[in-house]
Structure formats: C-alpha cells, structure tokens
Amino acid sequence: MSCSESLKKEKELTAIILNLKIEVLQNDDKLSSQSLSNIKRQTRDLYECLVWLQYSAEESDR
Tell me: the pLDDT tens digits for 19-39? Predict the structure, then answer.
C-alpha cells in the first residue's frame, strides 16, 4: 500500500471511530449499563488488536 493510500485509509478509519464515539455519547441515555459494558468489551478488544497490529507493523518496518 502506498503512503498516500495508507494515509487515506487511516483518515477513513479514524473518522469511522470518531463517528462511533459521537454516536455512543449522544445516545448514552438510551443505553443500559449492560449495553455500555458490552460496547466497552468490544472497544477493549479492538484496542488490543490495534496494539498487536502496531507491534507487528513496527517489527516489519511498515
């Protein structure tokens, strides 16, 4: 993937995550404690995946 394609994909994914964050914050009053816990669990899983992907990318010098 070229540098410009990588930057474009980064911006696209960052925008998706930001929009999801905004949606959760705007709808917090409609979400139960259990729903928020489930969302938090999925978010934590995403974070852990990103940590491993970053580590792998650094190891392969991407």
Answer: 999 999 999 999 999 999 999
DSSP assignments along 11-42, one per residue: HHHHHHHHHHHHHHHHTGGGS-HHHHHHHHHH
Helix, strand, or coil here: 45? helix
Give the residue among 6, 45, 39 at the shortest CA–CA distance from 25. 39
CA dist list (Å): 51 to 38, 40, 57:
20, 16, 10
Q: Which residue has the tokens 């994914």?
A: 13
